[in-house]
Amino acid sequence: MANLRTLKKEIDYCLEEVVFDCDMAICFQPSKEKEIFALMQEAVALRNDLFSKAMNPAEPHNASLVRKHYAALRREIVEGFEGLFAKLSKINEGK
Questions:
Q1: What Å distances lie between residue 47 and 28, 31, 44, 72, 93, CA to CA?
Q2: Which pLDDT score, from 0 to 100, does residue 2 have?
Q3: Can you tell me whether residue 9 is helix, strand or coil?
Q4: Which pairs with CB-CB distance under 8 Å and at least 24 residues apart come from 5-8?
Q5: Which candidate among 49, 66, 84, 93 keeps its CA 20 to 30 Å from the CA of 58?
Q6: Contact present, 45 and 38 (Cβ < 8 Å)
Q7: What is the pTM of this model?
Q8: Are 66 and 42 in contact (CB under 8 A)?
Q9: What is the DSSP string of 37-90?
């Protein structure tokens, strides 16, 4: 991990991508606005949770555990936002 600031920017970037895709989905399918808006709220909750984890490693004085914490956090970022994109795709495919 380069630094905490970069990690937080990556989390925000992923959130922006999800929100943008949700906005586009609402434009094309206004009948599913409530479902998509709920997904946007879930994305914001995920972002807040990830920020909380990024700012509070379990053992801040043990470098080995800190590296493991941030490696696990990066995996959680990828899995979490991929899951949100999958949910959005599922909402969009249903007619």
A1: 25, 26, 5, 15, 25
A2: 58
A3: helix
A4: 7/54, 7/70, 7/73, 7/74, 8/51, 8/54
A5: 84
A6: no
A7: 0.90
A8: no
A9: HHHHHHHHHHHHHHHHHHH--S-TT-HHHHHHHHHHHHHHHHHHHHHHHHHHHH
Report angle CA 20, 33, 15 to the nearest 5 degrees: 25
Inform me whether the pLDDT recorded for 1 exceeds 70.
Answer: no
Q: What is the pLDDT of residues 26-71, one digit of tens each?
A: 999 999 999 999 999 999 999 999 999 999 887 888 888 888 999 9
The confidence score (pLDDT) of residue 93 equals 87
Residues whose CB is less than 8 angstroms from the CB of residue 71 and which lie 6 or more positions away in sequence, other chains included = 1
One-letter amino acid of 58 = A
- Judge whether 26 and 40 are in contact, CB under 8 Å: no
